[in-house]
Amino acid sequence: MTTQTLPAQTPTTTGVVELSTVSRWYGNVVAVNDITMSLHPGVTGLLGPNGAGKTTVLHMMAGFLSPSRGTVTIDGKPTWRNPAVYRDLGLVTERESVHGFLTARQFVTACAKMQKLPDPAGAAQRALELVEMTAAAERRIETFSKGMRQRTRVAAALVHEPRVLLLDEPFNGMDPRQRMHMMELLHRLGDNGHTILFSSHILEEVEQVAGLVQVIVAGRLAASGDYRKIRRLMTNRPHVFAVRSSDDRRLAVALIAEKSVAGIEIEPNGLAVRASDYGSFTRALPRIALDQGIRLRQVVPSDESLESVFSYLLEG
Amino acid sequence: MSTVAFITARGLFGRRRALLLLPLPVLLIGLALICRAYGVSPDMWGQAVIVGLGLVVVLPVVALIVGTGVLGSEVDDGTIVHILTKPLPRYEIILAKYAVAASVTAVVSAVPLFVTGALAGSIKLGGALAVAAVVGAFAYSALFLLFSLLSRRPVLVGLVYILVWEGLLGNFVSGTKNLAIGQYVITIADKIAPTEILQSTIGLTTAVVMSAIFIVAGTLAAINRLSSFSVAGETS
């Protein structure tokens, strides 16, 4: 049997992983609401605030949850109640539970055996080399640092060279060096034609690794596509600033003439300025204050939280 | 040995709770030895030690510790995911875990019961108790393995079964006798080696057939349950 290299990522209409109008609810709570997405070879980031439903989506892809409605397929085969999909699928969960009493090599080899690979020892060696864990392979996993554990789990998920690799918050709790290493690894796997999806609630993480981003907010697919486009949407969004100055009323009059200002409210302890464009407003404000001879005492973006960024995307 | 069975066995004996398996069998043999050493007639202590401690406590509790240890603790700490993300038919996973649970329980309970029976009566009584304990080990293990998949607190559910269902209701509601593994064990041992110590309340056929039903139905239900095993998300 020869392994063929995948043809240079020809965009196909059907992805390797397909979610079609997928919803999942727990009792009255809707965790995932009508999501349709397809994943293709390469690295895709699944971005969203905590509690948005990222883990639920990943678990449905990995066959650990049945969709309440819709279908989840890998290569056209449903993932729920179908253990055969694990031949083509690797999963790295957020929970870093491992059989700590095994050494890294024992653990990865056991995974290779359970995959019924013809040469479990060789496959384990290759997987450990890939994540650069050969030096510590004979140590028990419970003695490992968080990053080493994570790499061992990635090795275990990759030992059968699956076409699809799903990772839930793989960078959580990693130090910068480990993070960089993991990012390189995902890059390499994506370039080799694997279909990689990893979840994160941090935009910077996603844009360093993934060309494509799926943004989930409150169980819905809020945005999907190239990360640069999504990045632009985020910086050009309307924004509310709490501004305090030496003369709030005069500043309000001066600001209302500014193009990037959509509205101003005078409040007991300052101004609430609604800017239509984050970038132009933050450049214009100091200039206007200087011109008017007004001293700015406080400029606070009042909705800087990631959640508000995401909810803006959702509305847009 | 399958890889699943290997990991299961390593996990079972690697955890501290494996030490819980030691005191009960030791206590059982110890009590019997003390009674023998002081020349107390087996009529005085046989029933209390063999039935009251051995069959009512040691066998089901050992089965509970082991039966929930092979699967329940993996579900609990999330390591089950590493086994579930493999293209293994679910019956292979359940049967491997069941084989480990039942055989460990059988050895840990049948050996001390054999010794205690031999000290209290005869080798024949010891043998009868050992055979009955093996049957009981397989029936209890199937039940507790299933509990591990039905509840997030399998140990609690198992204790309720042992204490309330078998212990309390079994004494007052006669119908529950036919649905209590403890009664099958006593009956099987009694029919093999009839003594004053054991008093069976149901027929041998019922005991054997019902044990088989518990084993088969419990295992099938566990396989079915594992096939649609859902992993709850932590953040959502």
From TrEMBL, chain A:
Q: Does the keyword Transport belong to this entry?
A: yes
Q: Name one GO molecular function term.
A: ATP hydrolysis activity
Annotated Gene3D superfamilies: P-loop containing nucleotide triphosphate hydrolases (3.40.50.300)
Q: Where is the ABC transporter domain?
A: 17-243
Record keywords: ATP-binding, Nucleotide-binding, Transport
Q: Which Pfam family is one of those matched by this entry? A: ABC_tran
Family, similarity comment: Belongs to the ABC transporter superfamily.
Identification of the protein by name = ABC-2 type transport system ATP-binding protein
Q: Which organism is it from?
A: Actinoplanes philippinensis
TrEMBL record, chain B:
State whether keyword Protein biosynthesis applies: no
ATP-binding as UniProt keyword? no
Give the keywords, sorted. Membrane, Transmembrane, Transmembrane helix
Name used for this protein in its record: ABC-2 type transport system permease protein
- Species whose genome carries this gene: Actinoplanes philippinensis
Q: Which residues cross the membrane?
A: 47-72, 93-115, 127-147, 154-173, 202-223
Q: Which Pfam families match?
A: ABC2_membrane_4
State the superkingdom. Answer: Bacteria
Q: Where is the signal peptide?
A: none
